[in-house]
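Model it.
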Amino acid sequence: MPSALPDGEPVPADGALPASALTGAADRPLGFYLHVPYCATRCGYCDFNTYTATELRGTGGVLASRDNYADTLVDEIRLARKVLGDDPRPVRTVFVGGGTPTLLAAGDLVRMLGAIRDEFGLAADAEVTTEANPESVDPAYLAALREGGFNRVSFGMQSARQHVLRILDRTHTPGRPEACVAEARAAGFEHVNLDLIYGTPGESDDDWRASLEAAIGAGPDHVSAYALIVEEGTQLARRIRRGEVPMTDDDVHADRYLIAEDVLSSAGFDWYEVSNWATTPEARCLHNELYWRGADWWGAGPGAHSHVGGVRWWNVKHPGAYAAALAAGRSPGAGRELLTDEDRRVERVLLELRLREGVPLTLLKPAGLAAAHRALTDELLQRGPYDEGRAVLTLRGRLLADAVVRDLVD
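Modeled.
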């Protein structure tokens, strides 16, 4: 089941932000994340805030229905307009995630985007992305999205091997994600991503290479590759605990990452974040870069998180409770926190170190600077950028990114 929300102070009923949150807003890009919490089935590794029809039955009534979900989400977009007041910024990025957004009608996704356009306006070069399950779209659906203003799509491929997909409880058939890329291109999508997962129990090096090669052969301009994390409370965690499938160790994850870097870079993909590769700078996911660089975004939907000017808040998780709050004219916010300058410094180091451009050494305290020098000696940071005042991970450093960043934030 979905993981728990963090603790925090109450969100005002009208969602109002402290006046300081919009100070300097004109210098920061604004994005929207729209969360669609519905899935046809629950994948064994997933602990996202998603729900199948069975899980929702009897717990939210008509308010939790996906049939009227777009209307509810539009209500929160209108709330965002009230909360942000006369903030003049057009929206730079929109990302529809989940769950499986494409379980909704294409017209629903277009209507949600239209609400953002009507309330805020979209930047002339706005990036508009939706995630998609390969089995939940067809050429007509993709054409409707493209006509409605979407210009980027991200397909969940995970693996090209059937036995790996089976362990993950993925429902699509091998070959379908690759076909989706062609369909998206035919519909006019400028940018297409394929999501991959490595380190699934039972996956071999050859399986992983085959998945990478199938993804590259499909012709996307962006590939994301994430190590499988086995979260407590998931079906996969229970299967591993019962000894039904083996746990993949960190050394295997490291080997798979090196394979990914080798195969992707040889095919013309450059890393720009530890888990993300793109063929050109224009193919990067601008919305994710907005997160990594601490810009402003409004997360609409149950369980969605937002950040504006050092204020972070999160919505109630259940779709029924979320819809009920908005129907009553209240913010669906469950809690929030006001980040201190030190909080924001630490977050910059944590996130920006994962980027190809790295993090300025001026953000580090004395202990962090000493750790950076040790990391340089251990060949975890690149010498050239270090001499120019930036901490940038080497390939070996990317393998140990979590450990490196823990030392640097001290």
